[in-house]
Amino acid sequence: MIIARELRTNGFSFSEISKRIPGVGKGTLSGWLKDIELSPAQKERLLTKVKRAANKGRLKGAFRNHQKRIDSTRDTIDQAKSEVLIKSKNPLFATGFMLYWAEGKKTREETGFTNSDPLMILLMLKWFRLFCNVPESKFRIALNLMSLHDKDETEQYWSKITNVPLHQFNKTIVKSTPLLGKRNPSYMGTCTIRISDKSLFRRIVGWKLGLLESFNIKPQWLNG
User: Fold this and answer.
1) What would the mean pLDDT of 31-40 be, rounded to a whole number?
2) 111/206 Cα distance (integer angstroms)
3) Contacts of 143 (CB under 8 A, 6+ apart)
4) CATH class of 87-177+186-219
5) Which of 111, 116, 155, 214 maximizes the CB count within 10 A of its CB?
6) What dihedral do alpha carbons 71, 100, 189, 138 form, nearest 10°?
């Protein structure tokens, strides 16, 4: 008890004292030392120590979460690499995959595809639904129109084509044009399929890498 009181008088925390006196818990120390008042400087030291410990714990937690994301990404890509050759035997998979590789969105871990041809949009939607297993609630549609289009009518048109309800449409962009009428009467603006799914983006990356490896193609920046 004497040693504990001396340590407390010198500004030690209960945890620090417990480490120096084995077998004495914080509850016991609280009874022994409750009458000892720490100086402002001693309180500041202990508060700083607590803050540092908390920050260290947050950093450790952030690092663990970061490592989990890295491991999860690697597992997803590796799994996709291993399955791409089997999937590529299906003509629809191969067609949709190459179209996406050529024209699809490939930045910020978002998946998307833009085209003005309704048949192309239909094909890619079937690819996303059949091979990427995208839930219907994940689809978002964005339209880019000219001012000569009837906005409501065009949105209804693309909703019917895509079978995606209007409440899953992003804000439609309408651009002004000096044209008084369509040069191509069948042109209904451009339609973008958007899917916010990082796991899907990584699967597609894995399919690309798996296909490249099957042709013994490894870009220099992928080495190591």
Assistant:
1) 74
2) 14
3) 154, 155, 158, 169, 172, 173, 189, 190, 191, 192
4) alpha beta
5) 111
6) -40
